[in-house]
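Troubleshooting entry. The earlier prediction with glutamine gave an output that would not parse, so I re-checked the input for stray whitespace and re-submitted. Clean input:
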Amino acid sequence: MGTKYIFVTGGVVSSLGKGVATASIGLLLKSYGLKVTLQKIDPYINIDPGTMNPYQHGEVYVTEDGSECDLDIGHYERFLHGALTRDNNITSGQIYNSVITKERRGEYLGKTVQVVPHITDEIKSRIMKLAGSNSVDVVITEIGGTVGDIEGQPFLEAVRQMRLDHGRNNTMYVHLTFVPYIKAAREFKTKPTQHSVRELRAIGIQPDILLCRSDSWLTDEERKKISLFCNVTNEAVIDAVDVECIYEIPLIFHKQKLDQLIVDLLGLDVGEPDLEEWRLFVERAKSPTKTVEIAVCGKYVELRDSYKSIIESLYHAAVANDARLKIKWIDTDRMEDDIQLSNTLALSDGILIPGGFGIRGVEGKIKIVKYARENKKPFLGICLGMQCMVIEYARNVCGMKGANSTEFDDNTSYPVIDLLPEQKKIKALGGTMRLGNWPCQLEPKTLARKIYGRDVVEERHRHRYEVSPKYLKALSDKGLIFSGRSPNKKLMEIAEISGHPFFLGTQFHPEFTSRPLAPSPVFYNFIGSSMKKA
Ligand code: GLN
């Protein structure tokens, strides 16, 4: 059997949850024992989102191989329970960059280089690359943006051609659309969907399946109407109804036999799907018996997408601890006075400081670390969060007045967080941080070693600054334990203290490896300790 290709497009408006819908289809097909991979196409000109502000883009997700990519890759990995690579996220910037590089090398033999066929060929080759000489059964490619966007046109043209190249039985088009409910008229409106499908058909793509995002179930009448006007069979009009837990979406699709339909249309030779474990997870997630409240303190809190993987990791860990997760968002850039802050923090069961860049909000974070340390509140610091933990310890326990990171104060007398010599040489911004998987050796008899239950772990990184080796002795002498280090002992990966229920910082990002059925051990134990305190 050759590789099958599924393309997911979006219509009407953005933010309909195309990433989760794509991931859900991936999970369903994987549950048949098929080898599935997922790909996101982002039509913007940036090479990757690594240089974008979180307010523009949301979280920058990091893969094992160190690519900085779209947060949808996070959804894909969480639903597929697998690790993806830099090939799973492509942008217009990458496509044009590679075509222009080839042109300069003279590879087009004197031809005029054009969007069709040169850009579209490049796009197709990036999609087909994922088939890995047919070892993958299904490649699902999600096209970012909304049908009708100017910058998405070359991608839609490329995927249109894919049916011509690979045949009807090997390609499928799924369109996610919005069916709004108009309260005053007391009815669903199907017109926006009709328009967006018409737009797709004008390009030459007739969707095989429609996923209709709506806030309640469509009636048979509406389904028929959509089917008739959009030229899609009745059973292929699938309801993507709003749910409380995103992990329920594959089950909602399965209930409407979406997976069976895909299997039939693509002629996939499979047995029965196995969704049992997933179903149990969703059941547990929906009816926990306890609650846990975590204060998440960062400066991008207005845009929750900036902390997507953090939120999901806390959620996985809460479910595994049989707790309903509540998050208290604290904007470290707009902090209340100290007393109010203490009162707010006191009400939470645990405190988390996630990663971040730039000086804004840093002093607020350092205050919060101090509160957590002194009041024995379970605390998890991630990346910048760990760096703040080291700065706080240096200032308030080791007496290093004004200790700081050189990211925030170049002239500090105690640069406890600093650039290593190899980073100092780097001038370019894109893709030049310490990125992706790095091994970390855990010290015996520490919290970190206990949490992981192993001697060596690999976790994903995305940062430029490190704990400065110059201050290691001073910090350790006063009780800060570096319980995780790089195998050559030069890089500090985990810091903790003893005599506190849970006070731990990781230079890496454990949130990128947490999965619903396999929560990150760091998050799992952090939530566990927070609940004990409560
Ligand atoms: N700004 C810090 C650094 O570059 C931390 C980065 C992060 O939290 N991801 O090292």
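This one parsed fine. The radius of gyration is 25 Å.
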